[in-house]
Please model this.
Amino acid sequence: MKSLYEGLVRPLLFSLDAETAHHFSIASLRRASHFDLALRSLKRFAPPSKPKTLFGLTFPNPIGLAAGLDKNGVALPAWAALGFGFIEIGTVTAAAQPGNPKPRIFRLPKQEALINRLGFNNDGADAIAKRLRGLRESGRWPPIPVGINIGKSRTTPLERATDDYLYSFRLLREFGDYITLNVSSPNTPGLRELQEPAALSQLLHAIGSEPGPVAKPIVVKISPDLSPVELEAILAACEENGVAGIIATNTTLDHASIPPELDAEGGLSGAPLKEKSTALVRSIAANSKLPVIASGGVCDAESAREKFEAGAQLVQLYTGFIYRGPRVFREIVGTL
Ligand SMILES: Cc1cc2nc3c(=O)[nH]c(=O)nc-3n(C[C@H](O)[C@H](O)[C@H](O)COP(=O)(O)O)c2cc1C
Model:
């Protein structure tokens, strides 16, 4: 039987263009975040508790919200009420920026996929830090781990990327239970070059040497389009620099499975990404002791099980949530 989301909400949202539907959904969840009654009604989707410990943090269940859905951290209480085991906000950049020209998100329903070339549209680290401080002071901070995903501002040249990450890191780390360094989005020119060993080591060393009251776990989010040699070098750099874990993976630039008439420029997510992304999880688990958070093509209990069997400790979803709605957690967590 179709859920309320699949039967009613999704057709309505899908009658709008993808970005309008996104703004409408985020605005609704943002509003709901201010009202206890609304949060209580969202809680009926919440799955049973299946606690998991990682990085010294307790996750009520291992299924999280992937970066990009709540880039500006506006709806944290609502995500927690819906039953996510953890939330990752961002990508946040040092400077506020509008992102690429629209249209820039494309649905491929038959493929259960999305293509996006948003380009880190976000309110910037200062505004987001202020918002998070306000949320904390209001007493509405969610009772689940919150990750903060940071990336490079488009206008900052690659040689100054470290300073750009450091700026956001200094402002935001006090709010994150873990901090993700995003070096793998395909929509900011040159960003993926930060996965090269010398550039990555420089960034990791700078972030790791930054003095602060409490050391937060640092997680690196990688591309699915890496060769085995590239992956090996990234894992070595992460291990040498005390990284806590890897998020595998971001969206792919490999569009081979997409019919040309549906194709668009940007990062591909959802079902067509699943196998490639799972293969990377398996390879990391086989070649390193770094814990893996799997992201890529999880849309039901079976695809989540594949990630855990490949060696993932936690799983995140984005595209699967767009297509399946909140019932997807009950289904996944119920089988764990
Ligand atoms: C519209 C859209 C925007 C995204 N924005 C970000 C982002 O800002 N930062 C990031 O690290 N990943 C971003 N992602 C990637 C997702 O976090 C996730 O890693 C990827 O989509 C694979 O998971 P999925 O197949 O469950 O969607 C975005 C994905 C989509 C579809």
